[in-house]
Amino acid sequence: MRNPTAGTPFTEREGGRTYLQIMSRTPGAREILNNSDHRAYPVPAGPWALSMSWHDLLFMHWPVPADELRPLIPPALNLDTFDGDAWLGVVPFRMSGVRPRLLPAVPGLSGFPELNLRTYVSAGGRPGIWFFSLDAHNPVAVRLARATFHLPYFDARMSSRKEGDGISYRSIRTHRGAPSAEFAGSYRPVGGPFESRPGSLERFLTERYCLYAADGKGRVRRGEIHHQLWPLRPAEAEVETLRMTGQIGVDLPDTPPLLHFSERLGVLAWPPKRLEP
């Protein structure tokens, strides 16, 4: 699977620094907050709650009929479409440096692989992400996220390792009583980095600054996040096993996915807040 794509190249930017110089480190919270012109709405007021970095991320996206996903989304949310299609994403990556504000990262708890199944929604003019599932190789993180963010996190046995210029990734859900899910494959970037253009499909799929989740009573909450503009690259992937969508009763189309890779991104997150009726 390979997807050539177009966008604005990452060349000299931010005071003459190149892409390689920018991505050689994870920016601090102040630097992340000072870069916000690309957002559709302002950075949230108030202190952020969590800081983290996302590494070696693959976006795998397929167009699906909107009427297949609409019944799976709470009525309080709009299902977002692009040119009439809803989009389903499978996203494997690795997290590091996960820590609460004013506290250090805890070795053994602050870094782990994660895999999510998602689509795109909005409420009150704020485009965001709806997660059908999030698998993580960290039992503590799974339980904290389920309790505090009301996100559908599940325990999984996972690995993410570099092999040459690519990533080998494996995930098998082990969560007791949960529907099965499995992903195995490898992926790599195949082109130079670029910035998504406003109005493009890449911008629609990637530049979203909140997530939505529902608690046990069906009340929807919004969790705000912030990061710099995604440094995307075209990607290719060899998928051995992809059993992620049976849990929601949706079949993927028999077409190659749209693929993008990103090496690293620093992220800030705010506590979730209940949507006003």
UniProtKB/TrEMBL annotation:
Domain of life: Bacteria
Signal peptide as annotated in the record: none
Gene3D superfamilies: Acetoacetate decarboxylase-like
Pfam families (alphabetical): DUF2071
Cited InterPro entries: ADC_dom_sf, DUF2071
Protein name listed in UniProt: DUF2071 domain-containing protein
Lineage of the species this protein comes from: Bacteria, Bacillati, Actinomycetota, Rubrobacteria, Rubrobacterales
